[in-house]
What we know:
The chain is of the alpha/beta class. 47% of the residues lie in helices and 11% in strands. The longest helix is centred in the middle third of the chain and has 20 residues, at 183-202. The radius of gyration is 19 Å and the shape is globular. Fe (ii) ion (FE2) binds next to helix 6 and helix 11.
Amino acid sequence: xxxxxYLTTCIFDSGALKQLAGTAKRLGMSRPFIVTDQGIxxxxxxxxxxxxxxxxxxxxxxxTVSNPTEKQVDEATARYKECGADGVIALGGGSSMDLxxxxxxxxxxxxxxxxxxxxxxxxxxxxxVAPLIAIPTTSGTGSEVSVGMIVTMNNGRKExxxxxxxxxxxAICDPDLTLGLPPHLTAATGMDAVTHCxxxxxxxxxxxxxxxxxxxxxxxxxxxxxxxxxxxDGSDADARWxxxxxxxxxxxxxxxxxxxxxxxxxxxxxxxxxxxxxxxLNAIFLPHILRFHEGAADAKYARLRQAMGLKPxxxxxxAIEELNADIGIPDNLSAIGLTAEDGPGIVDYAxxxxxxxxxxxxxxxxxxxxxYEIALx
Length: 377
Ligand SMILES: [Fe+2]
C-alpha cells in the first residue's frame, strides 16, 4: 500500500478505506464526527465508511451543500460540540472537505470565522485544530491534502482560509470510491485537477518541486489520456486510480499558488442560486485565461505542451477547448446560466480573491471583464 508523506500522510490505493479504523486509532480519535452530504449517503458510501470505521461515529452531519456557507459551518460545529466528538472524518468532494476543515477550526478556536480569512492576514491566528481524516469521493479538489478551505460568508464573500494547520492529519485516497461517479462530474472534477496543475505551474512563485508535480499531473490526466478514459468508462479502475492521483498532484502543486481561472471561478461560484460547478467554471475559463497569458511564461507553456503531448508551438488554449468538447463540458458561460449582468460583480470579487495574485501577468478589472465577455459566448 503506497503511503506518501508530502504536506501530510496520504494512504493511496484501491482498497485504502480498509485503513480507516487503524488511522483513527493512530490519531487518537475514538469518537469521530463524520461530515458528508446526502448524495454520498444515498450512494451507500457513508455506510461503507461506517463499516470500515468499526465503531459507531459520535455524530454525522450529512447535509453539506455545494460551496459550503458560514451558516452551515456554525450548524455543523454546534453539532460536533454537542456530541462530544474528538475528531472529524471528511467524506465527499471539496465541499464536505472544506466544511469539515471549518468545523475543526471553530471547534478549537473562539473568534468568528471571518477573523481567520487569509486575505486579512488571519492565517497566523490559526493554531492546532481538531484532528481530521479526509476521504475524497471525487478526483479534483485535492482538498484532502491542501492547506486551504473556502467558505461563502454571511456577507456574500467567498473567503479563502489558509494554514498548514488546516491540512488533514491523514488522507485516505481510495479510487474505488469514485467508480460510480457519473461522466459529467468525472469531467468537471477532472478539469478542476487539470486547472490546479496548470495554474500552479504558471504562478510566478519559485517552487520547482511543486512545479514539477504540476507538469506530472498534466501528463497523467491529459498526455497519458486518463481523464478522457475515466469520462468514457467510469468503471475503468485504472483510469479512476490515475485521476485520483492527478487530483492529489494538483493539490501538491498548488502550494505554489493559483491564478485568474480560480479567481473568476470562485467569484462566479458564490452565486449560490445558479448552482455552478467549480470544475465546470474552471474548464470554461481556462482556455481564455491561457490566451491572455500567452507570451508571459513561454518556457512554462513549452513544457505544458510537452506534458499534454502536443507539438512544439501548438495552441494550448485550443487543446483545452478540444478536451472540454471531448468530455462534454459546455464551451461558454451562457450555457450554464451566467449572464452579462453577472459580469461586473464577478470581476469585482475576482480582484479580491487570493488566486488573483498568482497570475503570471497582472490582470486588471478590464482584463477580467474582457475574459468574462468572451467566455460568455
Ligand atoms: Fe479548484
